[in-house]
Amino acid sequence: MTGRTTAGRGVNGLATSGRGVHGYASTGIGVYAAAGTSGKPFHAAGRVSFKTAGWATIAAGTKSKVVTPGVDLTPASLVLVTLMGNPGTTVYLHRVAANVTADTFTVYLTANATAATRFAWFVIG
After folding, report:
1. 90: closest CA among 68, 70, 110, 105?
2. Dihedral (CA of 84, 85, 89, 90) sign
């Protein structure tokens, strides 16, 4: 299927339930979006979800948490982490270390958390 227009939508997908548009490739790219310098290749109106994102919790009294994201990690993978709570007055996010052999990453704090601290993570690439 090819869609083309000089204005409006080139391709439209609509579903009452399920997927309005689905792309799949066993190798390569299932869906590709591009834009010129003044355009946007992707715009979502509403919540989005990614298989490569989630959350975990660093337990009180510990300073790290190993996460298995369920996707292959490579040396080029970016792992973004945001603390969603307060681990303690002088405790901060220290670093994130990826283990590409085990397909895990570890989130480290500067000291033991004084309270269980939830964090969100997102793996890109």
Report:
1. 110
2. negative
pLDDT tens sequence across 42-96? 888 889 999 999 999 999 999 999 999 999 999 999 999 999 999 999 999 999 9
* DSSP code per residue over 40-104: -S---SS----TTEEEEEEPTT-SEEEE--SS---TT-EEEEEE-S---TT--EEEEEEETTTTE
Number of domain units in the chain: 1
Containing structural domain, residue 117: 53-124
Q: Is residue 117 part of a domain?
A: yes
Q: pLDDT tens digits for 5-34?
A: 777 777 778 888 888 888 888 888 888 888
CA atoms within 13 A on the CB side of 19: 4
- Model pTM? 0.80
